[in-house]
Amino acid sequence: MHPNALLDLTTDLLRAVMRLDQPADAVVSAFFRQHRKLGPRERHTLAETTYAVLRRKPLFEHLAALGGDKKPNALKVPLMRRLAILGWQGNEAFLRAALTPDELAWLARAQAVKPDNLPAALRHLLPTWLAEALQAALDKDFWPLAAALDQPAPMDLRVNALKMKREEAQRLLAEAGIVAEPTPYSPWGLRVQGKPALTQLPLFQDGAIEVQDEGSQLLALLTDAHRGEMVVDFCAGAGGKTLALGAAMRNTGRLYAFDVSGHRLAALKPRLARSGLSNVYPAQIAHERDDRVKRLAGKIQRVLVDAPCSGLGTIRRNPDLKWRQSPADVAELQQRQQAILASAARLVAPGGRLVYATCSLLRAENEDVAEGFDAAHGREFERLPAAELLAKAHVEGADTLVEGDALRLWPHRHGTDGFFAMAWQRR
Ligand SMILES: C[S@@+](CC[C@H](N)C(=O)[O-])C[C@H]1O[C@@H](n2cnc3c(N)ncnc32)[C@H](O)[C@@H]1O
């Protein structure tokens, strides 16, 4: 494709993504479906440029305006193009071939700007409300977190213990030219170098590996489902954690995968088929007080509530979330999280375990929800310290992964997405 055409196409995609009215990955996928002739390299440039712009939106908007026409309407036309140029993730010579002399001069001015001299908001690259909440929680550690959130996340795999050992999967990946190292904490995980295509590998098609962040694996390890148990994955979605729990149960017992979204549960089906699991029972529920939940009350040994949340722990993978979430969304999510946790708790058998988890960085969706649950249900449920549970599940360095009783994972400390989890036992 001609350099100009690729830059124009990137600008078009960016214009659609920057409306921020839909998840960026959905907009990118829809765009690729409309442009089926694009090759893998062009797709890479389009998608990665979009993500780079989303990551650094305030900085790039500032740089785009440098020396620009002062009339806002006049700037509007070239703004997206300038953002695309600043975020360009393709060949640089190719990009330069598409630029006008004016654009080359502007780009030189933009590249000469020293980020250290810019205001804080252009360095941490977060909306003010979120920066304030994280600064209050982290103090000096705020800036290392902001730097970590500005980087792309690594690709982690979970090896399906039903199918093979981690070392063997590592060896087979190496034979396919893919370098992977054991993840530092999860005994099931491999961290892959780069972002290789995996879906054509026999290893993937036979269900021996699944793409899953190490943090997600740790949530399944904390739940610690065993052979022959009755287990509920209450917010199973497309089943990332369901698959890990089912394998930990060695394909025995009964694992119910509940979700209100039939669409997400449908995405679990092909993954289940690959995994070799036959102990999983996906079920769409109308809401958290569905009759199905009532029928199983008091019968379940392990209940995982991987609650709907702001997703702000996954900003490295979904940088659009920082611009698409708001304090009002978080307040509404907190209400839903409390309701879902209270309802799911009714499933837990005496002596059984309840795990509440999110991929949010915010206290409001994490500690506050757990403390609210303690206040309302402290007589029936006692907290279990995550460090002990993880150590029993053979997680290395378990005591470095916790804050108080909770599992608390941070991208800048642990290299995982941000996660929170609290476990309780029914008395
Ligand atoms: C964080 S996602 C789950 C991700 C999934 N566990 C995984 O590992 O891939 C949260 C899920 O909760 C579901 N959900 C939202 N409200 C719910 C409710 N009231 N009861 C059960 N599930 C709900 C959403 O449809 C979404 O799939």
UniProtKB/TrEMBL annotation:
Cited SUPFAM superfamilies: S-adenosyl-L-methionine-dependent methyltransferases
Any one Gene Ontology molecular-function term assigned to this protein's record: RNA methyltransferase activity
Occurrences of domain SAM-dependent MTase RsmB/NOP-type (ranges): 145-427
Active site: C359
Keyword S-adenosyl-L-methionine: yes
Pfam families, per database record: Methyltr_RsmB-F (PF01189), RsmF-B_ferredox (PF22458)
Domain of life: Bacteria
GO terms classed as biological process: RNA methylation
Binding positions (S-adenosyl-L-methionine): D259, D306
Keywords: Methyltransferase, RNA-binding, S-adenosyl-L-methionine, Transferase
Family: Belongs to the class I-like SAM-binding methyltransferase superfamily. RsmB/NOP family.
Listed name of the protein: RsmB/NOP family class I SAM-dependent RNA methyltransferase
Organism: Rubrivivax albus
The organism's taxonomic lineage, starting at the top: Bacteria, Pseudomonadati, Pseudomonadota, Betaproteobacteria, Burkholderiales
